[in-house]
Amino acid sequence: MSKDVLVVKDLNMHYETLSGDVSAVKNVSFTVKEGESFGLVGESGCGKTSVAMSLLQLQADNAKISSGSIKLDGLEMVGMSESELREVRWDGISIVFQGAMNAWNPVIKVGEQIREAIREHYPDNTKVENTEKIASLFKMVGLDSSIMDRFPHELSGGMKQRAVIALALSCDPKLVIADEPTTALDVVIQDQILKEIKKVQELLGLSLIYISHDIAVIAEMTDKMAVMYAGSIVEKGPTSEIFANPQHSYTQSLLASTPSVVGDKVKLNSLEGEPPSLINQIDGCSFAPRCPNRTTTCHPELDMELVEVGPEHFVDICSANRN
Amino acid sequence: MLEYIIRRTFQMTIVFFLFLIFSYLLFNAIPGNAFSSLLLNPNLPPDAYQRVLEIYGLDKPLFERTQMYIVNFFKGDFGYSYKYFPKTPIELIAERLPRTLMLFSIVNIVAFYTGFFIGKVLAWRRGSKAETWITVTSVFSYTVFYPWFALMMLWVFGYKLGWLPIGKFLFPEKWYDAPFDSDVVFTSMIKFTVVVSVIQFIAYLVTRGIESLSLRRNLRFGSLLAIFIGSYFYWNNGEALIQKPYASDIAYHMILPVMVVTVVAFAGTALLTRTTMMEVLKEDYILTARAKGISQKRIRDRHAARTALLPVVTSFIFTIVTIIDGSVLTEQIFSWPGMGQLLLQSVLEEDIPVAMATFSFVGVFALIAHLLADVSYSYLDPRIRIKSQG
């Protein structure tokens, strides 16, 4: 049994806004083991990126982690000082951001931007060592080492995204967060990048958190997954188990809204309505107003709580009771 | 790039040619001429005025004069000053230029750096109390009526407190038995400043390639220390030792104008830097830089301020011409006899050769400054490519 790299327990994060607190992350708990890839899936605005930002504590100034714990290799990260956090960032947890197009500073050469990160965490490295390191990273993600001396605007979107992956790996992090890394790319490049990430992850034995709204990508990429809705995890477990046997109504709706390539043409099921505004305190099941499977035996008034329904397969109490 | 510079130089020559013709015609459009006052002198014979005009060629038609002036200009002959006859405009400029150059290069550098530094700190500390107050102060000094402000400062520091001299660039009584002209001192002060900046710049370039940040910082600090020690020895040995009391006299007179112009001029740069940098701070690459664990100061300076530099430099280029023409207002208020005063006097006295020479000098400098600005853009923002066409 490999050890736990990241343990998140009862994480709560809210944004302080003029019209009240917005709870973006509610009682989120999950564990990522060494070499494992973990998927977070959900609609836009359900708190996936907020979770990612909380892990690195890069959230906006008005965001506050109110309670919970984030342990990286047993090291508690909530409540760390800025200088301690700086050491964990990139060296412990690195991140591939949503828009790779804008992740590069336009006026600094790509190689220099990677070098900068290595320099920060390995100050004793020589210039030659760093150059070799970057060249080997570039080779790993399928880029020519001459790209080091290019400016970001001279690269294509796919090249930039590959370089971002090289950047994320530059300090040998324990955990890489990929926050919708392929959203801005076309399908062909998307597929290449996904393969690249998977290859690198297997090669280096990385722990990976993959965040996406695309449940098909999650299926391809991850060993375990969690489905988020309105800031909470509503179902989590091994990816294969969840796909074979989705328990929560929201997971079922997500799966039903994905077209299948094989078989007859069927009308896709889409879900009515929008996720609830998180500014109001939601009691009980947050999915109840949109739930297509609501029956009289449902207990939407029960507070959200994950219960085990299978081996390592947890689901929200509301759906668990019904099935 | 080279082709671009050559093409621009060619364009600039045409612009300069037009500039010469139009300024010459404009100066001649001023009613009367430099010798009109001779007509009023009852002791002169009646044909004296006419003879003087003939000597200076002012009796010829305007078209012929313009043609002659332009031809002579490109031969390097700028004529003689009407008012200080045996002196040529070049001699007058050579006397005035070092004074202006010294004062206004310091003013520009100080104002730009203060403005840029304050601007980036303001953007970084967005929303704090200090930010609000400094922004309000900057807006005040940006909009204040400059001559009034300068006079108030003169009144406070020169008259009420008596700390600083009220005008001029030296105390004449100190210079009675000076073994040299003030220009000599000015020139050696300028040389000193240039050498120091070049050393500092070279030190920056050399240390840029060093991988270890702490070593880089220490070396830069060391170079600064070396410059301080070096300047101490320079000013206490040989010729510089004799010049030292005079140089410090001039430096003492520079304090108030530098301070006043900085207070007025920094605000524009600061507010512009603040605005552009706030835009940059929203960019994703700032978040990436933070995620990389880079220090706040480095993100501020290296990622945010560096990217926000372009519009700031553009606005700076427009003020840089004051290094040469020395802002007529400032020189007038602080009675600093530099290029600005020469410009004003020669125009008022219709000393056309001097006015033309001074104006062309400023014009050439402005054109070159703009060319340098355009070339520097491609360094400041690599996305800007200088194309041979277009």
Question: Would you spell out the secondary-structure blueprint of this structure?
Answer:
The complex is a heterodimer of chains A (323) and B (390).
Chain A: E1 4-17, E2 20-33, E3 37-41, H1 48-56, E4 63-72, E5 75-76, H2 82-88, E6 93-96, H3 110-121, H4 127-140, H5 157-169, E7 175-179, H6 187-204, E8 207-212, H7 215-221, E9 224-229, E10 232-238, H8 239-244, H9 249-256, E11 306-310, E12 313-316, H10 317-322
Chain B: H1 2-29, H2 48-56, H3 62-75, H4 89-124, H5 129-143, H6 146-160, H7 182-208, H8 213-235, H9 238-281, H10 284-291, H11 296-307, H12 309-320, H13 322-325, H14 328-333, H15 339-348, H16 352-380
Helix pairs in contact in B: 1-3, 1-16, 4-7, 4-9, 4-12, 4-16, 5-9, 6-9, 7-8, 7-9, 9-12, 10-11, 12-16, 15-16
The CATH superfamily of chain A is P-loop containing nucleotide triphosphate hydrolases
Poorly predicted regions of chain A are: none
CATH class of chain A: Alpha Beta
Count of DSSP strands of chain B:
0
| Uncertain residue segments of chain B | none
Oligomer: heterodimer
Structural class of chain A: alpha/beta
Cα separation of the termini of chain A:
31 Å
Give a short account of the largest sheet of chain B. none
CATH fold naming of the domain at 92-339 in chain B: MetI-like fold
Question: Which sequence of SSEs, written as H and E, runs from N to C of chain A?
Answer: EEEHEEHEHHHEHEHEEHHEEH
| Helical/strand content category of chain B | mainly alpha
Nearest-angstrom radius of gyration of chain B? Answer: 25 Å
pLDDT averaged residue by residue of chain B:
84
The proportion of strand residues of chain A reads 25-35%
How does the major sheet of chain A shape up? 8 strands, mixed
How large, in whole angstroms, is the Cα Rg of chain A? 20 Å
